Amino acid sequence: MSKTQSVPQRRVFLIGLTGGGLMLGAGVHLQARAQAKLVDEKDAQAAALGYVADAGKTDTKKYPKYATGQNCANCALYQGKATDAAGGCPLFAGKQVAGKGWCSAWAKKA
Questions:
Q1: Which H, E and C letters describe 40-73, residue by residue?
Q2: Cβ-contact 95, 72 below 8 angstroms
């Protein structure tokens, strides 16, 4: 094999290696997101915010701000799609909240 033949093969190898690395990184990110734990209602942060996994179970005497129809999926802080069962929330880093959940930090999505 001559020197001129090995250069294009090396480029193809390096380009393939780079592309494979990007795909692997994206796969790890998606897997980590899928495996993110749901926030436990008994978690200190969740309890402080009155988080419940089912908005219908919100204590309206303790949280009079709650209104029927409010839930995490239609909150401005919710990082998932409105149709997702769960999604991220910056208030609970590394964990997901239930789309049907609610907490006192709820803010109407624009």
A1: CCCCHHHHHHCCECCHHHCCCCCCCCCCCCCCHH
A2: no
pLDDT digits (tens, 9 = 90+) for 53-81: 999 999 999 999 999 999 999 999 999 99
Handedness of CA 88, 91, 94, 96 (dihedral sign): negative
Which residue type is seen at 97? Answer: V
98 contacts 54 by C-beta, under 8 angstroms: yes
Residue at 91: amino acid letter: L
Residue 88 near residue 96, CB atoms below 8 Å: yes
Question: Residue 75 carries which side chain, given as an amino acid letter?
Answer: C
Burial 56-72 (b: 16+ CB within 10 A, else e): eebeeeeeeebeeebbb
